[in-house]
Amino acid sequence: MLNNMTDCEEGEGGPTSQGDGNPKESSPFINSSAAGDTGKSQQYDGKNMALFEEEMDTSPMVSSLLSSLANYSNLPTGSKEHEEAENNEEGARPSKKPVKAPQLGTLMGVYLPCIQNIFGVILFLRMTWMVGIGGVLGSFVIVFMCCSTTMLTAISMSAIATNGVVPAGGSYYMISRSLGPEFGGAVGICFYLGTTFAGAMYILGCIEILLIYIVPQAAIFKIEGLEGQEAEAALLNNMRVYGTIVLSFMALVVFVGVKYVNKLALVFLACVILSIVAVYGGVIKTAIDPPVFPVCLLGNRTLASKGYDVCAKVIEIDNETVTTKLWMSFCDSENLNATCDEYFTNNNVKEIQGIPGVTSGILAENLFGNYLEKGMFLEKRGLASEADPDSPATGSNRYVLADITSFFTLLVGIYFPSVTGIMAGSNRSGDLRDAQKSIPIGTIAAITTTSIVYMSCVVLFGACIEGVVLRDKFGEGVNGNLVIGTLAWPSPWVIVFGSFFSTCGAGLQSLTGAPRLLQAIARDGIIPFLRVFGHGKANGEPTWALLLTASICEIGIIIASLDAVAPILSMFFLMCYMFVNLACALQTLLRTPNWRPRFKFYHWALSFLGMSLCLSLMFICSWYYAMVAMGIATCIYKYIEFCGAEKEWGDGIRGISLSAARFALMRLEEGPPHTKNWRPQILVLVSVDAEQNVEQPRLLSLANQLKAGKGLTIVGTSVQGTFLDNYTEAQRADQSLRKLMETEKVKGFSQVVISSNLRDGTSHLIQVGGLGGLKHNTVLVSWPRNWKQPEYHQQFRNFIEVVRETTVASLALLVPKNISSYPSNGERFTEGYIDVWWIVHDGGMLMLLPFLLRQHKVWRKCKMRIFTVAQMDDNSIQMKKDLITFLYHLRIDAAVEVVEMLDNDISAYTYEKTLVMEQRSQILKQMHLTKNEKEREIQSITDSSRGSIRRKNPSALRSHHSNDEGASVAEQPEDESVAVSNPKQVQLIHSKNASTPTSPTSPTAPAGGTATWTDSKDGDKGKTHIATNPETGKDLFNMKPEWENLSQVDVRRMHTAMRLNEVITKKSKEAKLVLLNMPGPPKNRTNRTNPMDNTMYRYYPVFTDIQVMIFIGFGCLLAFFRFYGFGGMAFNFLTATFAIQWAILVQGYFQFSHEGKIHLGVINLINAEFACAVVLISFGAVLGKTSPLQLLVMALLEVPVFVVTEWAVLKYLKINDAGGSILIHIFACYFGLGVTFVLYRPCLNEGHAKETTSYHSDILSVMGTLFLWVFWPSFNSALALEGDDQHRAILHTFLGLSASTLTAFALSAMLNKNGKITMADVQNVTLAGGVTVGASVDMMISPVAAYALGVIGCTACMLGYKYLSPFLARRCRIQDQCGIHNLHGLTGLISCAAGICAILMASEEIYGPSLYEIFTHRAPVEGDPKLHELQMLIPGLQPGLGRTAGDQALFQVAAIFFTIGVSVLGGILTGFVLKLSYLAPPSDDFCFDDERFFDVPPDYDTPLKFSNTTTSEDSAA
């Protein structure tokens, strides 16, 4: 098979085959170059993969794909692009040396760089002060929070690092490729600013160590002798000068060569580690031999060491008391009797140990914080001092004072930079041998190490050093020594020089890393104005970025305070860390497909916790710095969003945008928008020319003026053709739409549909435009241009179909006419009017449009006028007042005018044009012209009809008209009337069998006569008569231009349109824009109804079911007597037929009569059959004892009584009785019992010889039972509401019948002495369940309840047959021949009781809003606000009576008693009528005998062999 395929390929596609003329890609490799294709094609040849040759560009062979994946470079996409761009810019270069493979491991590549960057200036210069101010506990909390934040961030970074290949660009690339261009750029800038300010902080720390602890004499601005603000200013100025010098030197070093910085990095790291080891060594030494480190206190205040030489007021020298330098500081002379400071006099000088040692127990004293205000004295806790709080402090320069006001959040902001630097390892990702392994392990190990050091230092400093020494930030009380240096072993200078070189190295590292970060951001191209910083020297060093970095760093140097700079860089680093955590949490929660980190300790909750901690720390440090940092990030984000280059990095923000969009769309699906939230969401339908350029660009201008960028705007067009052939044209059309939308500043979406014809394409746009709940509700389409020209006929046909489709879809339609004349977005109207012709209320759309337009600068200065039309019966003055009030409530400022347009104000031109069009429509209809012929005739409609006016005698028109308006309209320009007359013409053209107007001058027009139209001036004002020439009646088509022969509705519509058009033209001549609402198109396009919509198809199946029950079911059931089978079936047939016809008339008079006529339909027949069923049930009580004439009279009397009862109960009591338990079963039962009570025959009380059944008669009767049983659900559900109600009625009826059937068989055998089943029970009792569920059949009773009702009804019916019927016959003179009281009376009463219970239990919680459909009289009354809410949920719901459940139940009870009373009374009166002798009642001997009324066969009474008879007690009567 392979050889055959190869041969075929060679034969058909070989070298001699021309194919399709397109060169094929032979390489299975992605992005293979032409130069390299030859070798690869050789690999491809002979591998029998030509089948997939065309797909090789996009779908490579699996082997090549695996090879590409295995050799994947760890350079990110952005880096590759930048590298290629750099190569392209720099041109050909000498061949580079081969790049060495990354060799760094975890220790050298991640752990040690992180250690070096994390340990920094804060540890050496501020950690002891933080412990003294915040206490051991407070400082431990701060350290723990900050270290937890970095640890959680490191876990998130580890997840990013283990999610595929780590990009070589470092942390910025990891963040930006996860968060997208906008967030990536914002966070990248924050990261850059943080790194830059970190360099400033390190330089300030370096200068502080140099000027305070190493060479204080080098200060340019001398501090000695200065106090307070002056001393502070001098110190800051020194910091600024030396900081600028050091910054310049470091920037020069970085510019000259980064390699020197990298070589010194190990030296700086050694200094850091050595300094920390020296601290731990000093702590151990204090436990063994605490150093002598005295601190001098006056009272409890710490004295500055520069103010004394000996810690004493006086000393003994050669038995002589001599004052000390300290005395001179507080007294005015050396003498012992000198005047001294009060506090100095009242308090003694005391010397304490500054470093008592780790075993001294000083930890308890330093456990809690001691926050100070600026200028407060450093005081030792637990020492008493005598100080007058009212006396001013003097000699404050002799004490150690707090230089800043301290509080907990300040400590957090100052300390946090000491835990930054955790990204040093990830920044070297390109140099790591295995970044996915090294970054998580190295970073977490470094954070763990530094966290242990920091937390242990907090405890050890508090346990070793005196509190006043800890709070002495600059060591003023310890001879100007670095406090942490005094603890170090073997010498304080280890710490001093170690920290100095450490800060120098950290500053150099910051100045090295920050420019490269800025260069990476600039080369990404996401921030246009930073692109200049992407360039550098020939070796790639970022020269311009270094210059900007040094400039920003100088800002921090000018601030000059380490304590002020630290919170700034804390903000930027915290924001960066926050977004790292956010990126990971988003990727996890959004289930991004490519987010599969291998780091097993990662969980999204940790990222979320880290993000929360970062955000909290930002506001804890400084809420205003946090706001500024977030403001900077927001500005950068918005700048990138509006001006930046478009980048697609597969980021998580795009994922959250999609999720947010999906969530918003799903929310829109929850329900229709509230009226207050409605706004036009526009679908703009435009057409394109052959070059795919938009033909109506001003449509988009109008859309922009309407929307102003708010809401949804979809611009759609259709391209004719097929998708395969015209896809390129569709793309060009889409680009044209987008370009025009950008030009017109329309914010929205473009949509192009390819369809076989433009009509279907437009329809598809209307149907499928939008997504989910975000769909258009308004369609904007221009009026068809040149619609009167033959070649443009299809345009206005398409237009009218758009009108119809928007009407069907319940969309608003905006149709601007003369769209090319509309103003562009750059134009301005300085004055003018927007006229609104408010003819019919459209929900407020017409009022909303001018309001929206006036929001735009084009229409802002236009005023608004509202015109409304008053007809003959309207009060125009009151209308104007009401409209002004209405506009006031709408808060719309507009002038109001009411135009009166009376019916008799009709111009001659209007009548002329209308009548001619109608006349020609009828001519065409009679001619049966083809469609093409009709179209040719229609082309001259307007011109010909106007020509007919001109051919008439103008003076005759004017002389016969009551005013001069006819002439003015006749001279009206044609364009002014086209808009309103056109829809009618278009409709006639489109209709298949429509009446189409033609020209009276055409060959088919009537000839030989003229006609004039006049207004009647006497008597019939407002009517128009037509004077015609008698000869016109003899024309070819026998057409007479008479008013009565034409459609008066069409004439009236045409008149209204033409007259209204004239009034609008006259009133709004000077308006800039006229807005009016037009009537929608006729819903019936062909003026023909769908046959399947006829109600006959809904009701006829039910009608046939009831027919079977009436004529077959009842007929067979009543034929159970052996000798009365003819009578049972035939008299049933006769009575039913008569009763139905009679009921149609009587019910029609009471219920279906309109304008003196009875409207007849299938539903009337069903109601008549229900009345017939009433008669037949009553017939069962007197079966076999009445003549046919008596039965007809009984039907004649019973039907009116029933109909009146039904009418009264339904009209006044308004009950629920879907199954007819009250109005059918109870009425029929007690009417029949009333009749049989009067017709009582004593002789039949003990039975009759012929009151027997036979085997065959019982079988026939059971057949009737089966018919009734099968069709009873149709009987009960016929008049229930369509849908769920009918569904429930059928289910409940079936369940009730099933239950009664099973119960009947069981009880029949139980109650029979022989334990056998009696056929009478089968014939009757099995049907009891259908009656029992009747009153509640359409209600929400459970299936169990329906089943229980069947059982209860069957039991009552069975016991009634067994015991109640004999009792009624013996004691009450009621001979119930068929037991209708058992089957219909008792079960009917049970059904009514069940219905009342169901009504009482019905509530809105159970039924929902459908409660008011089932119980219509419980619906709210007219005007109730709840009714409006329900009508929104159930359109078409009618107002009710506002009844409660109890009220409805009481009306049900009243209906029962009323029905029983009327039926009994009517039955008794009917019985007396039936006793009249001339109605030929049968004698007792001929009861139950067919021979009295029928010709019977001779053997009808012959005993049948094997037949068994039963007595009347055991048979069904």
Tell me about this structure.
With 1517 residues, the chain is mainly alpha-helical. The protein contains 50 helices and 18 strands. It has a five-stranded parallel sheet, sandwiched between helices. Strands 13-12-11-16 form a four-stranded parallel sheet, covered by helices on one side. A hairpin with an 8-residue loop joins β14 and β15. α36 (1096-1117) runs antiparallel to α37 (1125-1151) and α40 runs antiparallel to α46. The longest helix has 44 residues, at 171-214. The chain is elongated and about 170 Å long. 43% of the residues are buried.
Mean pLDDT: 77
Question: Strand order, biggest sheet?
Answer: 8-7-6-9-10
> How many distinct beta strands?
18
The radius of gyration computed from the alpha-carbon positions, rounded to a whole number of angstroms, is: 52 Å
Oligomer description:
single chain
Share of residues in helices: 40-55%
User: Count of helices?
Assistant: 50
